[in-house]
Design brief:
About 30% of the residues lie in helices and about 20% in strands. The chain has about 90 residues and is α+β, with helices and mostly antiparallel strands. Strands 2-1-3-4 form a 4-stranded mixed sheet, covered by helices on one side.
Length: about 90
């Protein structure tokens, strides 16, 4: 449950899009993942406890599409939508 108006967890999903062949872009995967996670939190009634936000570049482009979970600063890299259920379960732990 929220304490002092803070979320139990706060997830930032990189949705930065690049038009460059020299650097990876998280945009497409990140946007899809964020949409999925937001829907799942709402279905479970957890959107007031676990916040899912889009983020600009998180500075980890070389590691592929990513997200980070606060307050523990748990970084996850090289994600894809095939992992969406696993990602959801990791956030809910």
């Amino acid at each position: 449950m929220k304490k002092n108006n803070l979320y139990r967890k706060h997830v930032f999903v990189c949705t930065n899009e690049r038009n460059s062949e020299s650097q990876q872009s998280c945009g497409k995967i990140g946007s899809e993942l964020r949409f999925f996670l937001k829907q799942e939190m709402a279905k479970r009634g957890l959107n007031k406890e676990i916040r899912i936000n889009k983020s600009g570049c998180l500075g980890q482009c070389s590691k592929g599409p990513c997200y980070v979970i606060y307050p523990n600063q748990e970084w996850h890299f090289n994600i894809d939508m095939d992992q969406s259920e696993k990602i959801l379960n990791e956030i809910l732990e």
